[in-house]
Specification:
By secondary structure, the chain is α/β, with parallel strands linked by helices. The protein has helices at residues 2-18, 45-52, 70-83, 93-108, 133-141, 189-207, and strands at residues 21-23, 34-38, 57-62, 85-88, 112-114, 127-128, 144-151, 170-173, 211-212. One of its GO terms (molecular function) is acyltransferase activity.
Amino acid sequence: MLPLLVRFVLGPLVRALYRPEIRGVENIPATGPVLLAPNHRAALDTGVITFTAMRQVKFLGKAEYFTGRGLKGKLMAGFLGGLGYVPVERGNAQAGLAALEAARKVLDAGGAFAIYPEGTRSLDGRLHRGHTGVAALALATGAKVVPVALSGTENLQPAGKRIPRRAKITVTYGEPLDFSRYEGQDSSPAIRRSVTDEIMYAILELSGQEYVDSYHKRPDQSAA
């Protein structure tokens, strides 16, 4: 019931309140496996996609968000599940493989899954080099990839604010990218890199951001 509540009740309510400009939503296939590949500008990007995609979309979520105790913990887990989060452990190589496997299960079942190719939020507003997980998923499952450009989401929740404020938001869904020409070549690092770069270029064309051909670095992190 929760996914239906999010899609048909909470979704229209949020869209009416924040009035995002939504472009190209018809580019998302109504059925079958599809990967959404957005740029990443703010923590609320996931919610923006959830409420504008017009199709239930799954995302990866930290497993600890689903393990809270008592009624509050159960309500939180149920709400996040309704939003489309799939719980996964994070923090090491094995966790990364588990995350890709969780995503693959969604796609193999004909679902829609969203993954941020940059891997983390952009702190400088630029579009950074994509990690190849998105390509690995697309090649392994045959899912089409819909590039997504988010604009203005970084203004929704300024530092120190708990409740998102109204801001000009634009969500642009690009035309699906089909990589069936590489069928059977998903184990090739060169092919995965080429596919990822093609996806990033499509996002760049939609977003108009400045592109940086290097992985994004957090202040306290080294390059991935």
